[in-house]
Amino acid sequence: MEVIIHIAKRFALLVLGWIVSFIIASRFINKDYFCATGDVFVYFFWFALFYILFGTFLLIEVYFLHKKKKRGCVIANTVMALPMLLFMYALIDIYLN
Asked: Is the pTM of this model over 0.85?
């Protein structure tokens, strides 16, 4: 039950971060100038920034949970952080090629 509560808290934090990222990105968009491509990049930047910070938080938390011997929470955080690592790998691959 502890692991389910842990996952629910992290999922709520993720959704809250998406909402905050959306609000911040909306502030940077000029409503009088319609440029869909630029708008997409602003949203992508803020969502990517939050997602990388969230994944880094999860990986740091894995270390501390491992020291507390909470194996289920460690596995849950590792699984939640894997898409972030793949996302960062894809960004680096796109940037270098």
From this structure: no
Length of the chain: 97
Residue 43 · residue 25 · CB < 8 Å: yes
| Angstrom distance (rounded) from CA 37 to CA 40 | 5
Distance CA 44, CA 67 (A): 35
Q: Which residues contact 83 (CB under 8 A, 6 or more apart)?
A: 55
| pLDDT, averaged in runs of 10, over the chain (97 residues) | 91 91 84 70 85 89 92 91 84 79
Are the C-beta atoms of 65 and 74 separated by less than 8 Å?
Answer: yes
